[in-house]
Design goal:
- The chain is mainly beta.
- It has a single domain (about 10-280), classed as Jelly Rolls (Sandwich).
- The chain contains two helices and 26 strands.
- The chain has a seven-stranded antiparallel β-sheet, with no helix packed on it. Strands 2-3-4-11-6-9-12 form a seven-stranded antiparallel β-sheet.
- Strand 13 and strand 14 form a beta hairpin.
- The chain binds fe (iii) ion (FE).
- Fe (iii) ion binds near residues 64 and 108.
């Protein structure tokens, strides 16, 4: 398909991240907050962590539980050690991804393995369908070198964390939510049009520079998220940047199920959340 054949979605809304503190006192920018969980179903949360002040990240995320969804950590700079109660251990290094399926329950720690320097990356939460919320937990570390990437015909670098793009397969494929997770480096004067399946919820997050998003070229500044509209005729998104930019393009198939969240537990009903709390407190994770 020629790029010119795509009709671009338009930006529906711009969101600026909110500063929060999580874990044992890690400073983060929460970009996708609870109020957007239905609009951006199946995505539940997106945090960006970016600091070269060790006081902002050294405390890390000591042992804590998750149930009912998947966590995707993408590291741009820095080193983070993961350990969980299923016996998995891994070191997440620059450019690498950790894809963890919490399923029925996992207890893990995420601790920086550096005492100074830049720590920069993202954590995305992807929901699981009701029938898989209590599935066996899973865990995968994908180092930078194993994540597929290609240079588009327009000369932009596209790293494929999940899903397929322009006939190229990404590192991770998931059923039900079919996530697309791309890290794009738009060249100076770069122009790119990428396919997004109709009906999937999608957003762009600019983490370096500034980009124009959508057919009308809405400007999206660094640390802003653009929620892409689900215009029925649109089958892709157009991205441009005069001075070059780096951004995430994330899309997925909505589950259309009720969302009941209490902290690290995301289920379909309040009863199921209470069951999760009870199971965790009584050592059943
Ligand atoms: Fe966690």
């Amino acid at each position: 398909m020629k790029h010119a054949d795509f009709k671009s979605r338009e930006v529906e809304r711009l969101v600026t991240g909110t500063p929060v503190s999580d874990g044992a006192g890690v400073k983060l920018s929460r970009v996708l907050t609870a109020e957007l969980q239905h609009r951006l179903d199946p995505f539940l949360m997106l945090d960006e962590f970016r600091s070269d002040d060790p006081d902002d990240y050294l405390a890390g995320f000591p042992d804590h539980p998750h149930r009912g969804f998947e966590t995707v950590t993408y590291m741009l700079d820095g080193r983070m050690r993961h350990r969980d109660n299923a016996g998995n251990e891994g070191l997440l290094t620059a450019g690498g991804v950790q894809w963890m399926t919490a399923g029925r329950g996992i207890v893990h720690s995420e601790l920086p393995e550096q005492e100074d320097g830049l720590m920069h990356g993202f954590q995305l939460w992807v929901n699981l369908p009701a029938r898989n919320k209590l599935a066996e937990p899973g865990y995968r570390d994908i180092p930078d070198a194993e994540i597929p990437r290609y240079t588009s015909a327009s000369g932009n670098a596209i790293k494929q964390i999940a899903g397929d793009s322009d006939g190229h397969a990404g590192a991770v494929h998931r059923p039900d939510t079919e996530p697309l997770y791309l890290d794009l480096t738009l060249a100076v004067g770069g122009h790119e049009t990428l396919a997004i399946p109709r009906g999937h919820n999608a957003f762009v997050y600019v983490y370096q520079g500034e980009a124009q998003v959508g057919g009308r070229g809405q400007t999206v500044r660094q640390q802003q998220m653009a929620v892409l509209g689900n215009q029925p005729a649109a089958d892709g998104v157009t991205l441009q940047s005069a001075d070059g930019a780096r951004l995430l393009l994330i899309a997925g198939r909505p589950l259309g199920e009720p969302i009941a969240q209490w902290g690290p537990f995301v289920m379909n009903s309040r009863d199921e959340v209470e069951q999760a709390i009870d199971d965790f407190r009584n050592g059943r994770f």
